[in-house]
Amino acid sequence: MTVSIKETSATVRTLDVTLPQDSLTVPFEKKLSKYRKEVTIKGFRPGQVPKAMILARFGDMIRQEAIDEVLNQTITEELKKANINPVTRLKIENFKDDKEHDITFTAIAEVDPDIDIQGYESLGITVPDTMIDGAEVDSEIKRMMQMWSKDASVDRAAAKGDVVVGNYVDVIIDGEKKEMPEEREFRSLLGESASPGFDEGLMGAKKGDNKVIDFVYPADHKDEAYRGKKAEFKVEVTDIREIVPPTMDEGFFEQVGVKDEAELRTNIQESIASNKKQTVRNKAVNEAIDKLIEMNPFDVPHGRVIDLIKYSLKQHAENKEEEIEPTEEQLKTLSPEAVHEIKKHRILDFIANKEKLKASQAMVDARLHEMAFSYHVDFESLKGHFRQTGRIVSLREELRIEAAADFIVGIRPVTEEVK
Question: Dihedrals φ, ψ of 408, to 5°?
Fold first, then answer.
């Protein structure tokens, strides 16, 4: 057996392999013996099927299994000797076997290139301070009150802030009558619609009214296909509902999990501050990563790009168990982002290793506390679940990479772990 390994590129290693035919003798005989013991053929007792009959029926299959076994064992040993760690399944090319001369083939292995990231300690990119004002807190409280509001049917004309409930009868856009869906009901909060003209046409409507509303879609409408187009809606109004906000009393505070308005405002202020800080932190990290990618160019194995695109498509698919093969168009469109994400992770992994960054127990507990609060579950129960399922390992890795991201924007880890 001979194996020669070539560094075809920074991300590809090519193995040219030659296997003598006699290397198949032992594995072939072992598999043949196994088949004789396990194969059942009418007229023969188990284990007593003639060797010639086994060879006639299953010889080619046994030979292929023996080749696969020797091939896999050989490649695994050679890759280990050469310290090559493939990142995707090997590709076998130019396989030749005439059953007389040596078996020859080429194995293509994709690998991650070695990287040495320079300049990450002094990028000059930091996270700016953030500030919040009372208006932001007031706005968030208003949004919360709307979220906890109820609506009640009223016997009067619709006004701004009311919800008009009705059914579409006909819809005509730029003179073209649209096919109506099975579900024709609409609920429009007057003053909050993406189409102000539609809202205006419903102002003053009463339950039981039939209305024809003519308007023009705004130039900045969320649906580009409708921007600036004339519309004619025929609708029937089935209900007018008034929004009734909750009263800020003891019962409301208990519902939202605070003791009084002061604690509510404090919690909201802290939440806004945290979100703002995270936003500017992420922006700084992305800027730093882009700069490091530019300063430290390296290649990414094509197989890793394909795998990440497949994973992304699978996450957005209805059936997450189904394997998805990306189209050429998807590969073309999604590859740049996939390459960027792979480079980002490799850079942060390198920095985490170089700086010996780890996720302390205090960091893990802090993240689990955040998750427990968000999911409304008990902290200890969540922590136990993460340990039992092994997810605690992936959480530690996630936090380790986050620590590296913090490092490149000037946020240094706490050296003492909280007991």
Answer: -75, -10
Do the Cβ atoms of 237 and 207 come closer than 8 Å?
Answer: yes
How many C-alpha atoms does 382 have within 13 Å on its Cβ side?
17
As given in the structure block, the two tokens for residue 278 are 């995270």
Task: Report the alpha-carbon distance of residue 373 to residue 383 in Å, rounded.
Answer: 12
Q: What topology is assigned to 150-244 in CATH?
A: Chitinase A; domain 3 (3.10.50)
Give CA–CA dist 95/103, Å, rounded.
Answer: 8
Distance CA 417, CA 312 (A): 36
Report the alpha-carbon angle 164-165-167, nearest 5: 130
Torsion of CA 42, 47, 51, 54, to 10 degrees: 50
pLDDT in tens, 312-366: 998 877 766 677 889 999 999 999 999 999 999 999 999 999 999 999 999 999 9
- HSE-up of residue 282 (Cα within 13 Å, Cβ side): 6
What CATH class does 257-407 carry?
mainly alpha
Among residues 123, 91, 127, the alpha carbon closest in space to that of 109 is found at 91
**94, 105 in Cβ contact below 8 A?**
yes
Domain boundaries, the chain: 2-110, 150-244, 257-407
Dihedral of alpha carbons 371, 279, 295, 344, sign: positive
Query: What pLDDT was estimated at residue 239?
Result: 97
Q: Which of 54-58, 196-200, 315-319 has the lowest mean pLDDT?
A: 315-319
pTM of the predicted structure, to 2 decimals = 0.73
pLDDT class for 419, splitting at 50, 70, 90?
very low
Separation of alpha carbons 313 and 311, rounded Å: 6
CATH of domain 2-110: 3.30.70.1050
Cα dihedral 25, 29, 30, 35 in deg (nearest 10)? 140
Determine phi and psi for 159, rounding to 5 degrees.
-130, 170
- The per-residue pLDDT for range 60-77, each reduced to its tens digit, is 999 999 999 998 898 999
- Non-local (6+) Cβ contacts of 95 within 8 A are 103, 104, 105
